Amino acid sequence: MNDDEAGGEWSLPRLIEFLRQYGILLAFLLLAAGLAASAPHFLTWINLLNTLESGAIYGIVAVALTILLILGQFDFSAGATFVLAGIVAAKIQPAVGNWPSLLAGLVVGLLVGAFNGSAISLLRINSFVATLATSLIVVGIGIRVTGGFQLYIADPAFGTLGNAKLLEVDLFVWIFLGLSSLAAFVLSQAQFGRWLLASGDAPEAARLLGINVGKVRTLAFIFSGAAAGLAGVILVSRTGTAIAGDGLGNVLFPAFAAVVIGGTSIAGGRGAIWRTLVGIFFLELVRNGFNLLEVDSSYQSILEGAVILLAVAADSLGRR
């Protein structure tokens, strides 16, 4: 084999790895440039801020799902936990007040996460199956608490968390950015982040190195539940209403799509928070662009599904 043939042999794997690493970033930049050129209102401050706000709530869940996917785990109950946290906050608000009720909703999410983590780590149940079962339980609890009716909160002060602004930006956007920064720091700089990556890439090897993989997984699920609870109380504070549901379409699916599109491997061991942020912004630019250009929304789902398939395919080929 001559040098040219050897170079050609290596070019495809390098190209695949490059696309896996930076493909979504290139796609995001191209999409942003295309929208800026074709939609006059795209680069306005109001439009960009609305785009950021639209992705911030499910983005909180996406940050936690990133950690879990790096571990090779998945939390199917995050959507239902998100809904139940809002229900609990709305239900007990008349009795305990605004902030205690919101805190209670957050604690509910944390407890669901602790339940998932304990079941998966101690009983060695597959995370998809375990959290699917938990999701069904949580949805049932939500229906029992609400009686199938929508809950309303009349106190305007209850909406502070979801509607207050800081420097002309909604407070929950700052919470999302702060949580993302904290998770990125832990993942890239802290020892626990190295444990996460090692436990996701090679769990048995991580155990031989003295890492308590079960504890790492439990903590990751607690974080996932707490993040879902936080997002849930933010939404109920923002809207002043709560109703039972599974949270799949409006929270879990877009959060999972953002993580996968960003390039975090579903097989575990590889991923980054910045990738998820790019995935969130990419999805929101697609939705925003379709609205600005008045394109049929059915094409949006087709495009998002195609991008997810490409992202998973690139990850699979990169591992090969």
Please give a structural write-up:
The two termini are 22 Å apart. 78% of the residues lie in helices and 2% in strands. The chain is mainly alpha-helical and 320 residues long. Helix 1 (3-38) crosses helix 12, helix 7 packs across helix 8 and helix 11 packs across helix 13 (298-319). The strands form two sheets. A two-stranded antiparallel sheet has the order 1-4. A two-stranded antiparallel ribbon has the order 2-3. It has helices at residues 3-38, 45-70, 78-96, 98-123, 127-146, 160-163, 171-189, 191-201, 203-208, 213-239, 248-262, 273-292, 298-319, and strands at 151-152, 165-166, 169-170, 241-242. It has one domain (14-319): ABC transporter involved in vitamin B12 uptake, BtuC (Orthogonal Bundle), CATH 1.10.3470.
**What's the CATH architecture?**
Orthogonal Bundle
Tell me the overall shape.
Answer: globular
Number of domains: 1
Number of DSSP E strands: 4
Per DSSP, the total helix count is: 13
The residue fraction in helices comes out at over 70%
First CA to last CA: what distance?
Answer: 22 Å
Uncertain runs with pLDDT below 50, 5 residues or more?
1-8
| Radius of gyration over all CA atoms, rounded | 21 Å
Could you spell the SSE succession in H and E letters? HHHHHEHEEHHHHEHHH
What's the main sheet like?
2 strands, antiparallel
* Mean of all residue-level pLDDT scores: 88
Helices and strands, with pairings:
Layout: H1 3-38, H2 45-70, H3 78-96, H4 98-123, H5 127-146, E1 151-152, H6 160-163, E2 165-166, E3 169-170, H7 171-189, H8 191-201, H9 203-208, H10 213-239, E4 241-242, H11 248-262, H12 273-292, H13 298-319
Antiparallel strand pairs: 1-4, 2-3
Helix pairs in contact: 1-12, 1-13, 2-7, 2-10, 2-11, 2-12, 3-4, 3-5, 3-10, 3-11, 4-5, 4-10, 7-8, 11-12, 11-13
